[in-house]
Amino acid sequence: SVSDKAIFDDNLDFHRTNLTKHPSEMEMTDTGGHVEQWAVLADKGYQGIQHEVRAVLPTKKPSGGFLTFDQQCTNDRIATHRVVVENYFGRLKTLWAVCGDAYRWNRKNYDVLFQTCVAITNVHIRFNPLHAEDGDATIQYVNRLNAIGLKKIKDKKKAQQKYREKRKTRLTLLLASESAISGNACDSGN
User: pTM surpassing 0.90?
Assistant: First the structure.
């Protein structure tokens, strides 16, 4: 499986192009570096992208160290804003199962399928805005997937047990008939 960061890195040209502000957007008040670009709001797994594109990333705790109070407060503010991103993906996965599982169909159709799911999800959000409850929907979705997985495991064990019982019955009958045939052969030989 490929990490999200690796996929991001493989598509840097796409991100640079789509993060570039249009001339009318340049008039908006913006502070910080790279004001000609919109920023990517990412989690700790995307460390390093700030060297390629404008990014808002939480600070990673140093190995064996601690974050300062200000760094922790900044991370909390970033996490608050990232909730919307997580809620979006939760909604996408809830509406379209194909987006929430490993893609197993024809790779050639993936882009069009995914873009269609995203477009229809955007329309859905226009009529049903994202809320904090969407996090609950994501948890419910994950729990449902776990329940499906556990049921599959349970059903497989049941099927294996049933197979073993039937096999044992067949072998018992076979051995009984073999014994009867052997016994008859011995009786007729006397």
Answer: no
